[in-house]
Amino acid sequence: xxxxxxxxxxxxxxxxxxxxxxxxxxxxxxxxxxxxxxxxxxxxxxxxxxxxxxxxxxxxxxxxxxxxxxxxxxxxxxxxxxxxxxxxxxxxxxxxxxxxxxxxxxxxxxxxxxxxxxxxxxxxxxxxxxxxxxxxxxxxxxxxxxxxxxxxxxxxxxxxxxxxxxxxxxxxxxxxxxxxxxxxxxxxxxxxxxxxxxxxxxxxxxxxxxxxxxxxxxxxxxxxxxxxxxxxxxxx
Length: 236
Description:
Blueprint: E1 8-12, H1 16-28, E2 32-36, H2 39-48, E3 53-56, H3 65-73, E4 80-84, H4 89-97, E5 102-105, H5 110-126, E6 133-136, E7 139-142, E8 147-150, E9 153-155, H6 159-170, E10 175-177, H7 178-185, H8 194-208, E11 218-221, E12 225-228
Parallel strand pairs: 1-2, 1-3, 3-4, 4-5
Antiparallel strand pairs: 6-7, 7-8, 8-9, 10-12, 11-12
Helix pairs in contact: 2-3, 6-8
């Protein structure tokens, strides 16, 4: 799958001015743009045009965008970035739990959207086989040996701390909801016990961040979850 130029982007939005703006901006970065203005068109084009990434608005005239997301996820793992004026935290959590790779709220900066697109495309390329070594900035995680280093120095983590970090590494660059982290690390019986996460993320930051009060790697998405920052994709 292409990571930048030549990637096919399906833009799903019922507002013509938004589609025109995104089409012009993405074409200028050498992306090929396919447009849809309804949910049914989006589902059909996902099948026939086989896009490399979908930018999906939630407020569509025929089907709610969340239902479109659910139906696409029944058969496709294409990266999907939700782009919507809905800013309620529960809307974000719902979209991410339904399988969205990221969520950008309107109004948005094109630079931010392009960075999120690159991350989603790169993550999709890497999902076929989990890379044994992950690194971002001075943080490195050897998934085979279960060794974590910061600036070349090994950091000792507890089993749960490591599992939280490993889960964030697996979804690096994406928002991982509280419920998803709790489900993967503690099991489905603990999906509402967010205090576990606050404690363990705090402990992780103490061990891997240069300044835990200004985290560089594990970023809080308020009310939603956490994102392991990919420093080559974001502003340094």
